[in-house]
Structure formats: structure tokens, C-alpha cells
Specification:
heterodimer; A: 262 residues; alpha/beta; Rossmann fold; 6 helices; B: 327 residues; five-stranded parallel sheet; 8 helices; 18 strands
């Protein structure tokens, strides 16, 4: 069985995002590139499934990323993935959701898999539309937000979280899954894993190999960012010391009154 | 893109507030674009939802009570939306930015070869050009993103971004032809774990608790009565969810939900970046914390430094009194 896990490389989510007021661009200096945290849960799901299914099951990482950043994927290989494939091409720069999903789908088709696992959201721009778009391009059943995965006779039985509870969903392989954070914490890489990862292959895929029939990058995008700016600043807040509970409560009550919430 | 088409999300006949927000906003957008405003509602209970949508200013409501919609995972919804889009013609499609809405939008994007902008809180329309305003990077920046000219464009719209107003409804309810009967992903079991309370993302007021509450009980005894008095919902920080005090479905923040209520009250939450990105776009923010130097003070309109266990019941009582429910 072959499992492919998609991974996005994002700026460290624990670093506060700041916009340079001059260039109006995201300040990236001094911010480390890491695996999108949601995708680590997807990898954890893939690795657990590999352990359960056994045999010659392989877990391959797929990422669309600039070539210079691909070594970041060693961390995923150290966690236990078998190999990685990176779609990188300068022509992909500026791709929107449409162009990204289109290029990814074409590259993924070449990898031939039984199960595609995608992170629930991306940390840097949470459109959440990529998993559904990939499923549609690849003609796969799409089961999002999985918290429990069972596999028997090439049929998945998935417990997936909903807004109000959960659903049990059944679908045949090949299929696409996304994982919920309740699936379970991603494992840490062991020392042996880290050493072993150094020898694992990271293959590069270029756009030329994919014979796409429409453009990608900003030319192939269906949306265009016109401008971006910091949001309107919140006015200086007020602090009230309230050693006496009644004073604290009435300070809040007065505020709610003033803002017409009461 | 001339017309506007709203996906009326519901859960087996239980409405979602955001559906009415979109139905109202669709009219404004359609008037600017010079087209029609329509809605699609499908699945068990769709007829009743269509009736509830009728007072809103739409031109047509496309409806099908097909119970197969509830037997498969979203595939039928995507097919019905595609069918409605081809009936209505070139349009801007509004989908709630919810768990299901995001899945549907991505798939519809491919089917309709449409552009998509996510988490939209405002629109700017000039002629046939549609620019969508949405916060990105956890609210650190706001982008203005144009949908390039094309037959279809999709916007997933943040709940609470627009007002709902039931007036000027003249819509005809039209039957959509029934779609395919079978799909690969079948729903065997659908379980509601909540108690039918307001969905967190849609609540106009959120009262959230954190580590400072020390255990699960205060969520029931302190926060719930305050949320109820204000017509809101209870949320939590990651620390509280990780400790098992509340289910993860209540977690607000980077790895949880993003909420934008009109009023956010943070009780015993320090305000780490993890939490901040999930709530900082809220209307007004009030914090109660015993530590006057807690980071939450930096992005609150009001920080009260004191004992939440004593302040919250007093506050709830003041609000109930003002509402005429004195105890």
C-alpha cells in the first residue's frame, strides 16, 4: 500500500507575524521555515496506518515548495516517512488556490497512491479549499477532519468531527483524508530517525515533467491580491484594578452598557 | 459574475444564522452587480428552510428535499450547487466559511473552474469587478483580493461579518432536479454531541475560559450563566482543552476555531499568540485576569484585574437585573 502525505512549509507559527510598513510585505527575516503544524498530524496518521497495515506499505511526503527549502522536509523523514517528492519551479510563484491545487493534482497523479492524507488547514493562509480541490481533480472520495481511521478490505471507516459531534463515513480506496487535531499528537523524531533521514531520498519534480495544459503562477491564477495592510488598530485599552469584586463587575457592566451589549 | 448565489447551509432542517446573513448580503451585492440574488437549499428539511428564507430579499430559492443529501458526505451538495450555478448563470457564489463550507467550496472551485477567496468579511464592487476583503495570518494583515473576470467566483464568508435583515422577500421557491443517487463516501452514522447550543463561530457573544479557571466546573457554574445572560456561547483556550476540562470543539485559537463575535469576554486567559490569532478580530474584547501584566491586556478594550470567581457571578447578576430577571 502506498500512502502520500502532503506537507506545506510555512514560517514558524510561534513567531508573531509583522508587516513591514514600508514594503507592506511580511517580515520573514529571522523567521524559521517549518512544517505546517497541521500537516504533522496528517503524517502521524499516515505513519500509524503504515504500522498497522505493515507489509511493504510506504509513506511518501509530497510538498510544493521552493527548491531551497526542501531540506526542511528531513524533519518529516526523521519522524518516519520513507521518502519525499517536491514540486518546485520558479513558475509556481504567486499561484493562488486554483493554480496551486491544479499543479499539485498533476504532480500527485504521477506518484500513484492508495491513500492521500492532507493537513486540515495551513498555518499561513487558511483557505481550507485545497483538500476538496485535490479530491475533485483526482476523482477521489474526500473525507475531512478524521479523528479515527480504520482500514479493512481496502475500505476506510472514518470517524470524522463535525460542528456538532461526529459522523462515521465509509469509502473505498483510493481516497483523500484530512486529519483533525484530535487524531493525536504527532510523534517526535528519534535520534535513529534523524540519522536515518539523512540517507532518505528527496526527489524533485519540475513543471516540465507534468505537461500541464494551462498556466500556473500568478498568470494561471483566478484571483489577484490588490493590496494588504495591517488591520485597523484597536484603541488603547483600559485597565481597572478590582480588589473588590463588585467594583470589577460594575466596571465591566458599565462598559457593556456603553457599547450597548446590555 | 453578475448574479449572486448563496449556499444555504443547514443541518437536517436546523438553520444556521450565517445563511440569513448571506441571504441579506446577496441582495446588496446583486444590486451592485446588476443581477439576481438566489439561494440553494437541499437535503432533509430543505423545504422548511426555504420557507424561512422567503422573507429575505432574494429573487429565487432553489430547493430539493432529497434525503440522499444526508446519506453521503457532501458530494450531493456539490452536485446540487453546480446544477444551481448553471441554472442561474454567471455568478458570485457565497458559501459560509464553516467546516462543511470550506470542503464544499474547494470542490466547487474545480467543478466550475472558478476563482476563490476565503474568509471574506467585506466586498467592494465596481462595475463587474469584485474585490473581497479578508483577514489573513490570524488577523495580522487584511488583504483586498480581486476575483479575476470569469463566469464564476466563490467567496467563503465569515459568520457574523454581515447583518441579517428579513425584509423585501419576493422569492419564488423552485424545485431543483434531483441529482445522482449514489456516491463513494457514505455516512453510516451521524451523532450530535452538543446540547443544541449556539455554534461557537456564529455566536454574537463568546465567553471563554482558560487555565485560570483551574478545572471543568467553572465552565458550567461561572461561564455558562454569563454566556446565557448575554445570549452567547462558551469557548476555551488551548490550555483548558488540553487539560480535558472542555471538549476540543470549544477550543479557540491557532489550532482551534477562529471566532469574531461582537463581544469577547476572556476569563482567566493569559492571551498567548496561540489564543490571540483565534479571537483578536472580535468586536469588543473584555478580559478578567488576576495578573495585570497578562499579554491579553495588550489587545483588550478593558482588562479587569481581580478574582474572576467573584467578579463573574456579580456581573451575571447585574446583567440579569438590567434585563429584569433580578435574583
Amino acid at each position: 500500500m502506498k500512502i502520500v502525505v502532503t506537507m506545506k512549509l510555512v514560517p514558524d507559527p510561534n513567531a508573531e507575524k509583522k508587516i513591514d510598513p514600508q514594503t507592506k510585505r511580511l517580515v520573514r527575516t529571522g523567521v524559521e521555515t517549518v512544517l505546517n503544524p497541521y500537516d504533522e498530524y496528517a503524517l502521524e496518521a499516515g505513519l500509524q496506518l503504515k504500522e498497522r497495515v505493515g507489509g511493504d506499505t510506504r509513506v511518501t511526503i509530497f510538498s510544493m515548495a521552493p527548491d531551497a527549502l526542501k531540506e526542511t522536509l528531513r524533519r518529516a523523514l526523521a519522524m518516519g516517512a520513507d521518502d519525499a517528492a517536491v514540486l518546485s519551479d520558479p513558475a509556481l510563484e504567486g499561484s493562488d488556490v486554483w493554480a496551486t491545487a491544479y499543479a499539485m493534482a498533476h504532480a500527485l497523479r504521477r506518484l500513484e497512491f492508495d491513500l492521500l492524507i492532507v493537513g486540515g488547514l495551513t498555518d499561513d493562509s487558511s483557505t481550507g479549499a485545497v483538500p476538496g480541490a485535490l479530491a475533485e481533480h483526482l476523482g477521489l472520495p474526500c473525507i475531512t477532519n478524521a479523528r479515527k481511521i480504520e482500514l479493512a478490505d481496502r475500505t476506510l471507516t472514518i470517524e470524522r468531527e463535525t460542528d456538532v459531534g461526529y459522523q462515521t463515513v465509509r469509502a473505498p480506496l483510493p481516497a483523500l483524508l484530512t486529519t483533525a487535531l484530535t487524531f493525536g499528537e504527532p510523534r517526535y523524531a528519534s535520534l535513529k530517525g534523524i540519522m536515518g533521514a539523512k540517507k532518505k531520498a528527496i526527489a524533485s519534480i519540475g513543471l516540465a515533467e507534468l505537461s500541464l495544459d494551462s498556466a500556473v503562477g500568478s498568470d494561471g491564477s483566478k484571483t489577484e491580491i490588490e493590496s494588504f495592510a495591517p488591520p485597523a488598530a484597536r484603541g488603547q485599552g483600559k485597565t481597572v484594578e478590582a480588589p473588590d469584586a463588585a467594583a470589577g463587575a460594575s466596571a465591566i457592566f458599565d462598559f457593556l452598557r456603553e457599547r450597548k451589549f446590555v | 459574475m453578475k448574479n449572486v448565489l448563496v449556499y444555504a447551509e443547514h443541518r437536517q432542517g436546523a438553520t444556521r444564522k450565517v445563511t440569513f446573513e448571506l441571504a441579506t448580503q446577496a441582495r446588496t451585492l446583486a444590486d451592485s452587480l446588476g443581477g439576481k440574488a438566489c439561494a440553494v437549499v437541499v437535503g432533509s428539511g430543505a423545504g422548511a428552510i426555504a420557507q424561512q428564507l422567503a422573507p429575505y430579499p432574494l429573487d429565487a430559492i432553489y430547493c430539493n428535499e432529497d434525503s440522499q443529501v444526508d446519506a453521503f458526505l457532501l458530494d450531493p451538495v456539490v452536485d446540487y450547487l453546480e446544477a444551481a450555478a448553471s441554472l442561474v448563470g454567471a455568478s458570485l457564489i457565497l458559501i459560509p466559511n464553516t467546516l462543511s463550507g470550506r470542503d464544499i467550496a474547494g470542490r466547487l472551485m474545480v467543478k466550475l473552474r472558478a476563482g476563490i477567496v476565503a474568509d471574506v468579511v467585506d466586498f467592494e464592487i465596481a462595475g463587474e469587478s469584485v474585490v473581497c476583503v479578508s483577514p489573513k495570518l490570524g488577523g495580522a494583515i487584511t488583504t483586498r483580493c480581486a476575483l479575476r473576470p470569469g463566469e464564476f467566483g466563490i467567496a467563503t464568508v465569515r459568520p457574523n461579518a454581515f447583518q441579517a435583515a428579513a425584509s423585501g422577500g419576493t422569492a419564488k421557491i423552485e424545485q431543483l432536479p434531483t441529482a445522482r443517487r449514489s456516491y463513494a463516501a457514505a455516512i453510516d452514522n451521524d451523532v450530535e454531541e452538543g446540547t443544541g447550543e449556539l455554534a461557537l463561530e456564529e455566536a454574537p457573544v463568546v465567553v471563554a475560559g482558560g487555565r485560570g479557571l483551574g478545572g471543568p466546573e467553572p465552565f458550567e457554574t461561572l461561564l455558562k450563566p454569563l454566556a446565557r445572560a448575554l445570549g452567547g456561547a462558551v469557548g476555551a483556550s488551548r490550555a483548558a482543552a488540553d487539560a480535558g476540562w472542555v471538549p476540543y470543539s470549544l477550543q479557540i485559537g491557532q489550532t482551534g476555531k477562529t471566532v469574531t463575535p461582537n463581544l469577547y469576554i476572556a476569563v482567566g486567559i493569559s492571551g498567548a499568540i496561540q489564543h490571540k490569532v483565534g479571537m483578536r478580530s472580535s468586536g469588543a474584547i473584555v478580559a478578567i485576569n488576576k495578573d495585570g501584566a497578562a499579554p491579553i491586556g495588550e489587545f483588550s478594550d478593558l482588562l479587569v484585574v481581580g478574582d474572576a470567581f467573584r467578579i463573574v457571578p456579580e456581573l451575571t447578576n447585574l446583567i440579569e437585573k438590567a434585563k429584569g430577571n433580578a435574583t
